[in-house]
């Protein structure tokens, strides 16, 4: 039996360009491609944290060290400059391969520069606060950021002003 598993993730990258009339794809800074072991023309899934859109395209190289994340072609309708994305790849693994499996997780700052690399996601702590202060669940979920990048335990913080 094989299982489809998360192979790599670029977490909370910021869209720098959106090029509707460029040939389809998503151009990604080569430093980020290397860190996540994403190959040029490899299928990628993109989750737009800003607007909730989810779509599939393929990766192409952007200049190394540029911080470029450019969503191109028809996908440009689904992401705008400044949007926050999660870019993921998946792969099939046998049960034997899963014994040594670890995803490649890459975390960036607001300029798409690598700030951390990990091979596991911390266990999400339960949130015991009251989310009923006139904020609907969708808004509350998008307003709470998880500070899991550099620590073993997620801490919730209310931050309505940005990431």
Strand order of the largest sheet: 2-6-3-5-4-7-1-8-9
Low-confidence stretches: 134-163
Beta-strand percent range = 35-45%
Kindly give the count of domains.
2
CATH class of the largest domain: Mainly Beta
**Rg, please?**
17 Å
Q: What distance separates the N and C termini? A: 40 Å
Q: Give a count of the beta strands, DSSP E runs of length 2 or more.
A: 11
- CATH third-tier fold name of the largest domain: Barwin-like endoglucanases
Q: Number of helix segments?
A: 3
Query: What is the overall pLDDT average?
Result: 85
**Which bin fits the share of residues in helices?**
10-25%
Task: Characterize the largest beta sheet: strand count, sense, and whether it forms a barrel.
Answer: 9 strands, mixed
**Shape call:** globular
Q: Which structural class fits the helix and strand makeup?
A: mainly beta
| CATH structural architecture of the largest domain | Beta Barrel
Order of helices and strands: EEEHEEEEHEEHEE
């Amino acid at each position: 039996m094989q299982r489809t598993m998360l192979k790599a993730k670029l977490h909370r990258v910021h869209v720098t360009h959106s090029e509707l009339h460029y040939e389809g794809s998503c151009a990604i800074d080569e430093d980020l491609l290397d860190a996540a072991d994403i190959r040029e023309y490899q299928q990628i899934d993109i989750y737009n944290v800003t607007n909730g859109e989810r779509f599939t395209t393929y990766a192409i190289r952007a200049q190394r060290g540029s911080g470029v994340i450019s969503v191109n072609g028809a996908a440009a309708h689904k992401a705008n400059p400044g949007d926050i994305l999660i870019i993921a790849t998946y792969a099939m693994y046998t049960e034997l391969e899963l014994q040594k499996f670890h995803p490649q997780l890459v975390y960036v700052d607001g300029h798409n520069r690598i700030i951390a690399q990990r091979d596991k996601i911390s266990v999400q702590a339960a949130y015991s606060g009251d989310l009923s202060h006139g904020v609907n669940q969708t808004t509350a979920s998008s307003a709470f950021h998880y500070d899991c990048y550099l620590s073993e335990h997620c801490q919730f913080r209310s931050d309505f002003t940005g990431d």
